[in-house]
Each structure stands twice: as C-alpha cells, then as structure tokens.
Amino acid sequence: MFAEVTFIKKTSSSRCFCFIYFYFFADLLPASDGDIKTMTFLQEVVDILLAYIVESFDRETKVIDFHYPNELLQMNNWELQDEPATLDDILISCRATLKYAIKTAHPRYFNQLSTGLDMVGLAADWLTSTANTNMFTYEVAPVFVLLEYVTLKKMREIIGWSDGRGDGIFSPGGAISNMYAMLLARFKMFPEVKEKGMSSVPRLVAFTSEHSHFSIKKGAAALGIGTESVICIKADESGKLIPADLERRILEAKQKGFVPFFVSATAGTTVYGAFDPLIAISDICRKYNIWMHVDGAWGGSLLMSRRHRWKLDGVERANSVTWNPHKMMSVPLQCSALLVREEGLMQNCNQMHACYLFQQDKHYDLSYDTGDKALQCGRHVDIFKLWLMWRAKGTIGFEAQIDKCLELSEYLYNKIKDREGYEMVFDGKPQHTNVCFWYLPPGIRYMEDKEEKKKHLHKVAPVIKARMMEYGTTMVSYQPQGDKVNFFRMVISNPAATFEDIDFLIEEIERLGQDL
Amino acid sequence: MFAEVTFIKKTSSSRCFCFIYFYFFADLLPASDGDIKTMTFLQEVVDILLAYIVESFDRETKVIDFHYPNELLQMNNWELQDEPATLDDILISCRATLKYAIKTAHPRYFNQLSTGLDMVGLAADWLTSTANTNMFTYEVAPVFVLLEYVTLKKMREIIGWSDGRGDGIFSPGGAISNMYAMLLARFKMFPEVKEKGMSSVPRLVAFTSEHSHFSIKKGAAALGIGTESVICIKADESGKLIPADLERRILEAKQKGFVPFFVSATAGTTVYGAFDPLIAISDICRKYNIWMHVDGAWGGSLLMSRRHRWKLDGVERANSVTWNPHKMMSVPLQCSALLVREEGLMQNCNQMHACYLFQQDKHYDLSYDTGDKALQCGRHVDIFKLWLMWRAKGTIGFEAQIDKCLELSEYLYNKIKDREGYEMVFDGKPQHTNVCFWYLPPGIRYMEDKEEKKKHLHKVAPVIKARMMEYGTTMVSYQPQGDKVNFFRMVISNPAATFEDIDFLIEEIERLGQDL
C-alpha cells in the first residue's frame, strides 16, 4: 500500500493532466481499481492548494480579485447539471473557486476578527475531513471525544476554575455559544421551562452593554425571551460597561416585577475591543443572584498571555464563558467553546434521551457520550485543529502569537494618534488589537462646518474600502457606532502581519483616500 | 512558484522525515523562508491521509481498532503542554489519531445515517479549509455565497417550488435546521414574539409523530415553547404518522385554548425510515392554518431519485423542508439545508442589523450579504463540498447512488425476512434503507416463555454490537422502540457497500451471536 502511495506521488505531476482528463467521479474509490486514480486526483487537488497557500502569503499577490456579484455569476459556469463533469472539469472548478476567493492567509488581510491561516491548523482540518465523523458519541469519535475532554479541561484551568472542573462544549460559533449560556441561565433558575416553556415563568430580563455583540439579542429572540427583554447598559467612552448603570437597571427591572436572570459581560467588544470590568460586574451578579456570562469570543484568548490576561481579571467568577479559538488564536473556522462552571447542568438542560443514539446498555463508559448535552444532534469535529495547534505551539506559542498581535496594534496606535489627518475614535491605548480611527482626507480636514464635515467624513471609509477591494491590496473593516460616523476598525489577529504591513496599511489608506 | 511546488513534491518522500524532524511550527509559513518547509510538512500529512483513505476502503482492514476510554487515554500522550512539539511529533499525533479513529469510508461501516467518504466531497472540504472563510458576507466569501444561492435554488426546484423561488440556509445540522423551521413558524404567526417574547403570545403547540426525531422537542425546549407543548401523534405499525390522530389532537388543543402553530412531518424517520403521508398532513395544515414543516433530514435526498421520490409526494405543499445532503448523499459532515417557501421571512425573523458587519453603504449588491438571516454570526462554509460533488456526479449520479443503496436494503430485507432466526420489526418492504430486525440466537429461538424470551432478546443486540466493535469487522446500530426490545437498525447510505457486504453483515451477526 505504502509503496504505491509513494509511486503515485512521484509520478503524478507529470502524468496527472492526461491521466485525469478522461475520468469521472465513478472511476475513483470505492471503484474496485480506484486506488491509483483517487490518489492521483487528490494529489492534483493538493498541488492546487499548496500553490494557492504559498501564493497567499506572498505580499505581491492580491488579497482579493474582486468582482461584483452579477459579474462573478457570469465569469464561470456555476450552474448545476444533470450530467456528471469530468475530473478535469472538477480541477478547473477548484482553480476558479480559489481565483475569486479572499486570500485569508494574506499578511494584509485584516477585515474580520478571524484572519490568517495556520499551517498546523490547516493540516488538522484536512485530517478532520478525512476522518469524516460526528462528535455525538464515543462510539463514532473515540479520539476526538477524548481530545475535546482534555482541551476543555485545560481551557477551564486557564480560566481559573479549580482543577479545571466544570463542563463545556465546542459549538458552531460564538453566537451559538452565547445562546447556550442564556439557555443554561434560564434553566438554572427555572428548570420547569424545559417542559413548560416560557409561559410558566415570570418575565425574564437579561443585561448586556450597548457595545456587546448582536448575538445576545438574537439569542433572546430565538429563545422566546424577546429582544425588548435585553436591557442595554451604558458603556463609558472606551466601550466598557458601566457597573453603576447595570445595578440601576437591575433594580429598575426588579421594581417592575421582572426577573433579572442573565448578565452578559463582554471581554473584547467587537468594535472597540473593550473589556468590561468583570470583578465589579460579578459583585453585582452575586448580590442579585444573576447568572454571569462572559462573552470572550474575541478577547478570551488573552487568557493565554501572561502580559494581557489581567484584562479578564474576575473571569473565574463567571458562570459561563464563550471563547473562540478561531479568532485571536487563528484556529481555522469554526472553533468556538462554551465553558460552564457547573457540572451536569448542560446535560440536564438539553438532554432528550434519544434511545437510538445514547443507548444505556453500551459496553463502554457512557459518560463519554456527550452528544445529549448539545442543541445539535450531529456535531462537526472542531476540536482536532485546536488540539493539534496547541500541541505544535505549546501554550507559550499561542502566547507569543497573541502578544505579537497586540504589539502590532500598539505600533499602529502610536503611529497614527498624532499623525496629521487622523483622529482616534476614543482616547487611550486600545486594550485589544482593535484600533478605531477616522482618516480625514485633506479636502475634509479643515472644513469648518461641523455637520458638513461629519457628512463628508461618513462617506470616506466606505469609498476607501471599496477601492481597497477593487485594487485588492488590503482589506479592513469600517462602521458607524452610535452617533459616530463611519470609522475604520483595524483589528490584528493575523499571525502573518508585520510592522511593515501596518505601515503599508496607512500608506494605502492615504493613497486611496487623498482625493476624497 | 509552480516549479518549486513540483520540486518539493517529487523529492519530499525521501527527504521529509529527516527534513521535518528538527523543525517546529515557527519554521512554517508565515516564516520568511517557510515555503519549502511548509509544503514538505503538508505533503507529509497528505501522504498519511492518502494511505489512510486507501486503507479505509480495504475490506481486509478493521472498521475500528476499538479501545475503552480509559485505555485509549493511556495509549498516547494526549495532554496539552506549555512547550511546542516538533513537527515530527505532530505527524506522529496525526498517525495516532487516525489509528484509533473509525474508518467511516469502510464498506462495512453502517452505524449511522451518515456513512462513507466521497472523494470529490473530501477534495472540496480540503479546499474549503484552505480558503478558511466565513459565509456571513459576500465581501469575504464571494464564490461560496453565490454557490449557496445556486444550490439552494436548485434544491427548491427539486422540491417543486415554482422557479425554485423561496429562501433557505445551510445550517450546522438537521437539529438546527428543524429549530429554524419552528422559529420561522412562530414568527410568521406572531411576529411580535421577536421583540416581546413568548409572554406576548398564547400557548403555542406543535405536533409531530411519536417516531419523529428528538430535535423537535429539543428545539421546543430551547425556543421557550416547552417539550410539553410538542404533542406526539400516533404512528401506524410501519412508523407513519396517522393523519386522523393529528386532526383529533389539533382539535383537542384548540378546545383547550391552545394555538396549533407547527406540524413537523417526517420524511424518513430515524429508526424505521418511514415517510409520513405528506398530502394528507398538508390538507390538515391548510384547514387549520398551521405551518407545515417536513423533516427530510434523512429522507429528503430521495427527491433526487425518479424511482423513489413519490414517497415525498406533497412535499411541495410544505412551508419548510429540512434536507441533509450529509446523510443519504454522502456529502462530508456537515451539510444540512433548511429550505423555506416564503421569501424574506428568515431575514425578518432573525435580522439584528449589526452595523459593523452588514454596512448599508457597501459598493456591491447587498442582497448577497445573507448572514443576518442566520442564527449564527460566523457560519462555516458547508456549501462547496455539496456543489462540487453535484458538479462531479450530476443529478443523475446522486440518483444512481441513492437507488443503489435502496436496492441493497431491499436485498437485505428479502434475504432475512424468511430466514431462520430473524424476525422483522414491522411488516412489509422498508421505504427507506432502514431494515429493522431481531436476530434470535439458537438458544433463544425456541423459548416458550414469552417474557423470558423478550428479556433475553433485549440483551442480544448490545452484545453482538460490542463484539463487532471489539473485532472491528463491521458496525451497525441497535435500539429499543416503544415496547419493542433492542433490535438492529441497519441503514445503508455508504456508497462503498455491495451485496457481498450485506451477506457479510448477516454472516457476522450469526457468527458473533450464535452462542448467546
């Protein structure tokens, strides 16, 4: 078997095009003589991917070869047909798909909280696809279930829960992790809600900062709590929740006869990167007996850094924590964990005892059949990429990576805070890698009419962003916030970025924006 | 660049072990001279995967090298460390992980509704990992967003909705797709529930067959409806919902002042593979103005088969349909679609207008920013594997694959229905590939005391299953159902399975069970 593999690998590159050209999917495994054809085909795909990867890291290439949707629809035949295509056509489709994709590994891709492409994480994801199994039972995912166990325990230790005790799950993203937390908080206070629904409980209210992620409201809408029962707490100028306002709103709600059940503090807000004051919040939660959740989807990873973890001081007092390794730790998408302090609660909250899946008379220790604590039935294997990357980097490797991103953002902040044409959205050094700023082109810079100036400034970031995409040189996000007009939100989670890339970004903004 | 790729590929196999041994993750890209080391490392991983794939299809290998959890924990060092490991250690970890994994591609792996490993689907998943992006906006996933649009439209055409109109989304599994449907049904009837929560609406009740999937109840618990508000409708002997009982229970609920809002019919139940009578159910739903959902997670794929799609007659009258290509169509996990007849409803139900993500002043057609209709914020790219497989097989390729699985199950049914020592759980030819049966070992076969016989029989399937796993020869599921003691539920979705594998399964059950 192995000899054959080697043989194929050595010869495929010269043979594959003519070799694959005349074949179809039906010639691949499980076809009886499909071994060689399969390996040739997969090797050909891998060659396309390897070339794409190397190219993605090359600053000379574009981040994106942008086309408008109607153009892109016409640039290839994307329609599905009744008849099969040749494997050669499949390779062509792979190349076309990558040609128009965003190069998320590119050192100048800063558009989202999740950027970069980790090589060990990628290898792990390829292995996960090849193993093609499901997390619901030990029976079908023995290794992955154990690795989830080991990794969640380690993450709870890092949070600071004694001996890493507690519970948790990897879910399909931070929004779902936050929804789990709200679901658990409700169940903890009113377990009857599982059977009897919201009509059996008093009016529940949740609290979160006005800067928090929209998934808190989305979760409340889905869970039948309603968005109006999510009370937005004022944040200070730098985006941190104001504890006094939280307490005031809790008391107000109680006076109305509502039941405060859930506070979601944010560790690393989406736009400003602010860390809510967790200790003060936890004091209030304890005083009023409210579940404290920490949405650390973005900022949770700073727990890995000895230099920065103080920003989450008090996280160990939370009842639940969302932490997305697919953001600041560059684990390939998706990888989001919900960590829960109380053991057994998730199981009680979500279990339905499906007897076709969680048979009670299996021959192994059933505590490893973790699927019934999930909202999902089948669950994708998201653990292996995190586990293998942790193995490859060690905790100190993640720490170094995170510290470097924060260093780059400090460099950016220092570079623009007093630079002509720039204005910071809030004062002081950013706590996370978010640097929020306006770029004022010369034509706007000295406008005297403040309203006119604001109106013009609001249009600057969208135009510069559109030009960035059309040139394909870099990508960075922008948005308005409250009464603040459109500003750039630069975030750095891409391990490929360097000081030079930060310099480039500033030059590029000025190049693309100077005529506005 | 391309010359370099070729060079690496040709030489890696002889150099890689010594080459990689001394290196660490930090030597890979984005390290400045990381190209060659990265390609060598990734090629080495691919070689491990290719060997595993070829081995997985070989009937001489085990489906699983089974170990109990406490043994497996000790068979390797799975713990996470502070210090980085060498890349050589990473390769060792990859090999160890695969050694103890289930070979889901194995022709004798029948354990779940999702079995098999499709080579084009796998290639597509590798590409998806490499592109490492997020479905929320066109901006970051231009091609994948278009492919989702094209594919959902095609699926709606196949359902029978005129011109493929409607809406839909790929979600993380059938349970979440079903939850979406329930959420939409509630919002359609009481849009105020989004803001005001369940306390603003009357007591809602949902209906589904007693054989339906547990996710309907799980969804109701999460959405604040409560499991007691899911009314289980009687099924006939073959597992189909009895429409008369549905109507009776709807009337009963209305008399109590409850509001029926949702009926979930099942197209392909999990255990029996039964198809609920959709036309009769839709008549009732129309009469009482209730949202009709079809949970076709398992059976929806039969729509691709001209021979079998009559089993879903009436599906075009549904308001929403769950259809999991990761089951009967062998798309790698996960790939689940929710299709919705009414356009715009998902957006209205779920949107939260996050201005940092869905900016309204972007330079392209914003209708392609589909993320705000999702419950998730970030969403994994699940579309490419389905799209590429469809491209490779054509509709007729999927049809042939599905028809073959149904043929195999009919073969199994015909083989055992009159065979000594077998008893079918329900009469008649199965409608899906589920074949439910008891195997009665000689020692039990002629027992006269019926209760004693049942008690013994209940223990047979778990023991045979445990032995299958210990020998690693095959895997098939079992469960009790209602008052029926443990029976085998054979399902065939694995395109690698042949008539000989069915013969093998029967021989194996008899070999492992004859002494019981």
Annotate the secondary structure layout.
The structure is a homodimer of 516-residue chains.
Chain A: H1 2-21, H2 35-56, H3 69-74, H4 87-99, H5 119-131, H6 142-159, E1 167-171, H7 174-189, H8 193-196, E2 204-209, H9 215-222, E3 230-233, H10 243-255, E4 259-266, H11 278-288, E5 291-296, E6 320-323, E7 336-340, H12 345-350, H13 383-416, E8 422-424, E9 435-439, H14 442-445, H15 450-471, E10 477-481, E11 484-490, H16 499-513
Parallel strand pairs in A: 2-3, 2-4, 4-5, 5-6
Antiparallel strand pairs in A: 1-7, 6-7, 8-9, 9-11, 10-11
Helix pairs in contact in A: 1-2, 2-4, 5-13, 6-13, 7-9, 10-11, 13-16, 15-16
**Terminal Cα span of chain A:** 64 Å
The pLDDT mean of chain A sits at 95
User: Given this structure, which CATH class of the domain at 391-513 in chain A is correct?
Assistant: Alpha Beta
Most extensive interface, residues per chain?
A-B, 185 and 184 residues
Give me the CATH architecture of the domain at 391-513 in chain A, please.
Alpha-Beta Complex
As a percent range, the share of strand residues of chain A is 5-15%
- Strand order, largest beta sheet of chain A: 1-7-6-5-4-2-3
Q: Give the H and E element order of chain A.
A: HHHHHHEHHEHEHEHEEEHHEEHHEEH
